[in-house]
Amino acid sequence: MKKIISILFISLLFISCKGQTEKAIQTIDVKAFAQKLQTTKNPQLLDVRTPQEYAVEHIGDATNVNWNATSFVLEVEKYDKTKPVFVYCKVGGRSAQAADKLAQLGFTTIYNLDGGMMKWNASGMAQPNNKIIGMCNQEFNELLKSNKKVMVNFYAEWCAPCKKMSPYIIKMQDEMKDKVNIVRLDADKNKTLVEALKLDGLPVIILYENGKEIWRNIGYITEEDLKKHL
């Protein structure tokens, strides 16, 4: 009986802690995130991406606290747990994990940017930047000039679904070369195109025919389903 009571107590404690953690976190869209930032005095804004990603672009006065670094917990412990903290990453995966950790550490109000920097940029919130990063639009348009269909795959090294898709897409580049040109572009190294095409998630597959987009898929897709569109 004592054992059963102990198990019930631990289960209730776990449920209670989980509820408190979920209550502390609010995953909100770009508009709400921007409004909260604007109306919060001295907001604690954390960019949880890598220093390399942060160096390319970041939101306002955000501080870079790399979620993947072993020093993450040590760094965030420097912040005021009683005041709102804002977190974001590239597409939302790392910031969601970071938000969970912050809640576990006792932060009471956490705003997580849904869709991360990609949604932020696609919504037109990014600061104007005339610097071309990666392939320019003119080069991309030249790439699309083909008597075959052109499939463009935008991916990132840190993106789990991208890694899962990479082996069969690379295989398809050779297998289907007579039917379709398959081009893979690192989204982090081709920011100009990502913004021009208003990409707000990864991985992305865009299929072109005669220079015009005829199909687009955002997120993971199986090899079998992908081939149906080609």
UniProtKB/TrEMBL annotation:
Pfam families from the UniProt entry: Rhodanese, Thioredoxin
Annotated Rhodanese domain residues: 39-122
InterPro entries: Rhodanese-like_dom, Rhodanese-like_dom_sf, Thioredoxin-like_sf, Thioredoxin_CS, Thioredoxin_domain
SUPFAM superfamilies according to UniProt: Rhodanese/Cell cycle control phosphatase, Thioredoxin-like
UniProt KW keywords: Disulfide bond, Electron transport, Redox-active center, Transport
Molecular function via GO: protein-disulfide reductase activity
All copies of domain Thioredoxin, residue ranges: 96-230
Gene Ontology CC terms, in alphabetical order: cytoplasm
Protein name: Thioredoxin family protein
UniProt organism field: Flavobacterium psychrophilum (strain ATCC 49511 / DSM 21280 / CIP 103535 / JIP02/86)
